[in-house]
Design a protein that fits this description.
Blueprint lengths: L1 E3 L5 H10 L4 H14 L12 H10 E2 L4 E7 L5 E6 L5 E8 L11 E4 L3 E3 L14 E4 L2 H15 L5 E4 L9 H12 L11 E5 L3 H9 L5 E5 L5 H7 L8 H15 L3 E7 L7 H11 L4 E7 L20 H12 L5 E3 L18 H4 L9 E2 L9
Parallel strand pairs: 1-2, 1-15, 6-9, 9-10, 10-11, 11-12, 12-13, 13-14
Antiparallel strand pairs: 3-4, 4-5, 5-6, 7-8
Helix pairs in contact: 1-2, 4-5, 6-8
Length: about 375
């Protein structure tokens, strides 16, 4: 049984190569081969000594998640279905720039998944219909980025951990993945262009602050009262707004990094005058901005139907809500519904029954975890 080396950090690879008698430099070369060149065979690592290549081949495999299907939206958004080695699947979305300004660099934003399914059961999110199958490992997260970059042929400029799953429930793997992707030797999407999104896991937010993580932070808020937020986001019962806001205050004091507040608008539920006042009060506690997001129902993803009382706020009222919020001094952005026609818009990612049970090829006998001692 071989071990999958793809997903190892730079320091892990350095340690493996050093303990095997080849020195730190060889580990750094191997890192570049894995994450910049994207090799799948150690024999292609031409500047590594033959003895090291033989050791690697004997003990390890290089396995990437594979793109099984790509869907293209009329607006240029692409959604990729990745088949994992245990036959589970996740979806990843590549969103083109919404700007038509030729003088500005065009953004290409990749929305990454971190879990197969999600355990948090948010009433507006299709991923909740899957429940949680498992966390993605580091290689499965990094592999989404490398595979889409290669398939699209264009450089990805921004990453958002806003796909399937709650990123802070898979904290260690997500942070190791961001360290790899942001490394200059891997092609470098800088930390300042990577956003971690969470529904408000307080312990994870504080850990981000304590570790001095350089990524951006986005909080899925969606309500300004505990009663409503707990109905939309059940984890709000464990982390009420007062606790969440204290954690965000702590994060800002430690990092001095602006906060993004994500707010999906539901008709007649969270889009009134009282909601504008409450959202403004929260958003002005620390520097940051509010992203207003249209609601995208996904009834086909739910065996028993999605929450029937949730309907989208009409576009005109979204514009009105945004204008009144801006008048309070809060920076506001209106998120588009990119990829709506292929179920790739915010809150729509879910593996439908046909994809879950799609036949796949037999899988190699590998483990994704290994220790440096096993490299000797």
């Amino acid at each position: 049984m071989t071990k999958n080396i793809f997903g190892s950090t730079r320091e892990e690879l350095v340690q493996y190569c050093t303990e095997a008698g080849h020195g730190r430099f060889r580990g750094e070369q191997l890192f570049r081969w894995l994450y910049n060149t994207g090799v799948s065979d150690f024999e292609h690592c031409r500047n590594l000594p033959s003895t090291l290549r033989a050791q690697l081949t004997e003990r390890f495999s290089i396995l990437h998640p594979t793109i099984e299907r790509e869907q293209r939206s009329t607006d240029g958004t692409s959604k990729y279905l990745f088949r994992l080695r245990d036959s589970h699947a996740v979806e990843t979305v590549l969103i083109p720039s919404e700007s038509n300004d030729e003088a500005r660099p065009r953004r290409r934003t990749l929305c990454l998944s971190t879990q197969v399914g999600c355990p948090l059961n948010c009433s507006f999110c299709a991923t909740a219909s899957m429940k949680l199958k498992r966390n993605l490992d580091v290689g499965e997260i990094v592999g989404q980025y490398l595979a889409v970059q290669q398939a699209s042929g264009d450089r990805i400029s921004n990453l958002v951990f806003m796909g399937m799953g709650e990123a802070l429930l898979n904290y260690d793997n997500v942070m190791n993945a961001t360290d790899i992707i942001a490394d200059e030797a891997a092609g470098a999407v800088g930390f300042n262009r990577i956003t971690i999104s969470t529904v408000g896991l307080v312990d994870g937010i504080k850990r981000l602050a304590d570790e001095g993580r350089k990524t951006k932070l986005a909080i899925s808020l969606h309500a300004v009262t505990d009663e409503l937020r707990q109905r939309l986001i059940p984890i709000g019962k464990k982390y009420p707004l007062s606790t969440l806001l204290e954690a965000v205050d702590y994060y800002y004091r430690k990092t001095r990094r602006a906060i993004t507040w994500e707010y999906i608008l539901f008709d007649g539920i969270n889009d009134g005058e009282r909601d504008i006042r409450g959202l403004a009060k929260i958003a002005r506690r620390n520097p940051g901005k509010v992203n207003l997001i249209p609601y995208h129902p996904s009834p086909d993803a739910w065996p028993t139907g999605q929450a029937p009382d949730l309907t989208p706020t009409p576009h005109g009222r979204i514009e009105e809500f945004a204008g009144k919020l801006r008048a309070t001094g809060v920076p506001v952005m209106l998120r588009s519904s990119s990829g709506l026609d292929i179920d790739a818009a915010c809150g729509q990612l879910a593996i439908r029954h046909d994809a879950i049970h799609s036949p796949s090829a037999s899988l190699p006998d590998v483990d994704s975890k290994f220790t440096s001692a096993e490299f000797k």
